[in-house]
Amino acid sequence: MLLENLARAIEGDLGDEDEIIVTGEHEANAGPWKKLAKRNGLELRYWHATTIEGSSNPYAVAHDVNTLLPLITENTRIVAITACSNILGSVVDVKSVVKQIRAKAAEKGAKKVEISVDCVAYAPHRKMDVRDWDVDYAVFSFYKVYGPHIAALYTRFSTLPNLTPLTHHFLSPLVDKISYKLMPGGPGYELPYGVTGVLEYLLSISPISGPTSSASLKDTASIYSDPETHTRLEATFAAIARYEHTLVKRLLEHLTSEKLAKRGVRIVGEETASERREPTISFVVVNGETGSAISGKDIVKVFDAKGNMGIRYGNFFAYTLVDSLEPKVDVNDGLVRISLVHYNTIEEVDQLIEVLDEALGPPHILPALRPFFIAGQINVKKFPLEKRLRAPQQDIEDTDGHRRNRANIHAIFDVSNASDPPDNTLSTTSETTPEIPRSRRNIRESKTGNTETVSILTMIRSTCVHPITFKDEDGPIHDIRYATSGLLVSTATPLSGD
């Protein structure tokens, strides 16, 4: 909302030929400028993330300043960038980028260029320094920095005279030269008061000792200009960055391992734990050598069921960025994000990795299994196909708790403790572990007179992949394959006959 207010305030200071450049990431940063350009018929240009040089992963993308500079012309008026992508987790060298923007704009003869920086995903991990960066506007949210859900907007003081007041008309003459002109109404005082503990907390974890409580700190007006405070904060964020690097390294080493690469896991963003890599890590799961694509929702559901840790899926309001990825992913479902901060531990990362492996369901072979068998054929007339498929189409994780699904399964399979299966029925084999099929329902029918054998997928919590075979009476041998990660996948693949 703050950037929307800012865009409205800048609107009166725009020319007909002005151009706007955005990164097109989080919509809170890109949206206000896109709407501003549309309202005024201005040209809008995108600084897109591009594939990192030397990477074979098409999703390993980052923002390269060399693709930004060609977008700058003599008409460039506003450049809205991010200090860190909430998807890619890559830190932008804001100071260097701003310096190059201003140099290129001067070279092109641009009359006035203002730069806005989105620091929401940056602020929890690195110290912001708007003066050193030489930016005109910067915004971040306190809920990302261990505070209440309220945001803050920095404006360079020299920009204020040219901004249109958003406050009540009768107050405008009183506030034209101060930041209140960007406030369309009164603030919620309880929220600003709630952020006062953030500075105390950050100072309390600084390697440099000093006062931390409100009582021992200097008055609020002088705290932020106090060199000692800045030194201690710099030490805090340096320590945070060093520690978070260990978390990033552990997680990325696993996510980029050969095992997970074969499974189809692809990092979205930088794949290495470099100094510019924050612990915001996104990935997709595509078709791999040892398994099929998995939706982000299905991965996250496994974590939610555990109840002691949380990861999320979707586009995280960076719709344009996710939609621009190639090969295409489901913009609403296909991306999974893991967000770590300095109070997470290596042990928690290891627990996360363990659950992630369970969610991804990598194929593996278990020891010998107890025999079980199909107890007779199914009469098609009495048990129509529609009824057999009704329950598996639901999001069922445990058949024991769902009577309808249990009835369907028991109507087809009789899980027996018998030591030996009957003749011409289901038995385990030592065949090589198959690839997990992508579909949640893969049916093949082999009719024998008035009966047929049908394989059905249902959501059953399982940790094994093993093939089993059966033979219809006077019919072909089939292969049924079971998959992992809470899914029982059945496919009827003929080994002989038809």
UniProtKB/TrEMBL annotation:
Sequence ranges assigned to domain Aminotransferase class V in this UniProt record: 7-167, 234-352
Biased composition regions of type Polar residues, renumbered to the chain: 416-433
InterPro entries for the chain: Aminotrans_V_dom, PyrdxlP-dep_Trfase, PyrdxlP-dep_Trfase_major, PyrdxlP-dep_Trfase_small
Entries under Pfam families matching the protein: Aminotran_5 (PF00266)
GO molecular function annotation: transferase activity
Highest taxon in the source lineage: Eukaryota
Gene3D superfamilies xrefs: Aspartate Aminotransferase, domain 1, Type I PLP-dependent aspartate aminotransferase-like (Major domain)
Keyword Ribosomal protein on entry: no
Entry protein name: Pyridoxal phosphate-dependent transferase
Lineage: Eukaryota, Fungi, Dikarya, Basidiomycota, Agaricomycotina
Keywords noted in UniProt: Transferase
Region (Disordered): 416-450
